[in-house]
Amino acid sequence: MKEIIKLILKYHFTIIFVLLEFLSFSLIVLHNNYQRTVFSGYTASFLSGISSTVSDIDDYFYLRETNENLVEENTKLRNQIEELKTLCRWYAMDTLWNPVDSMEVNYVFKNADIVNAGVNKTKNYMTIDKGAADGVQPEMAVCSSDGVIGVVEKVSRHYAKVLPLINTNLRISAKIKKNGYYGSLQWDGEDYRYSYLNDIPFHVSAEIGDTIVTSGFSSIFPENELIGFVESVNRETANFLTIKVKLATDFKRISDIYVIAHTRRQEKQQLENEL
Hints:
The chain is 36% helix and 28% strand. It is an alpha+beta fold. The strands form two sheets. It has a seven-stranded antiparallel β-sheet with strand order 1-13-4-5-6-3-2. Strands 7-8-9-12-11-10 form a six-stranded antiparallel β-barrel.
């Protein structure tokens, strides 16, 4: 208390000056319409700025929750799209008397989060927070809203290990969307942003900017899941093109993912093994 009194006594002239200035300013604003209007305008603008800043900060802290809600909504929409595709097939077959609930969709989507990931090796892996208890099994597809991520390799009860496109051991069937020619997509272990589509016949038209998607021939990925875009085309080999693909997924900034289960995968594989 003594220190406060000493401080007041030491700076009492300054304190009195500030108080008088404040009082003078208040009298000017209160008794002059023009000054009062200008002051009100500046005050409203200042408070509006503070309110906007506080709102932005609040939105930032709720951004993750909003993201998760959007991922869940996106997953539900993907499942509904599969149901609608199946419903359209029922219509085409003139079997409208079958109840919609009895339909089997080809693919089921389940959202998940990445809990561990790497991009700096030739054999990179990712870990997601969904496992056998959630219905996740090996050889299920993993995608994001941007594009293909990879394939589930192993699962535990609550987690799954994912083999991403940026692992030299992974090959997937991919095609040029505009003409349907397909080949094998495999990473070369260099730049995580690019992969290579091989086994495309030399005569095929492939140009920079063409879209590369999944072929749908495997039992893992649905058809036409986005992979990336043609970055360059190497025509030096005699029989096949080597197409450099800029991946649509940024593996250093993946925000949301979902696992895709092919509901008829075992049936398809069993039939193919019998041939």
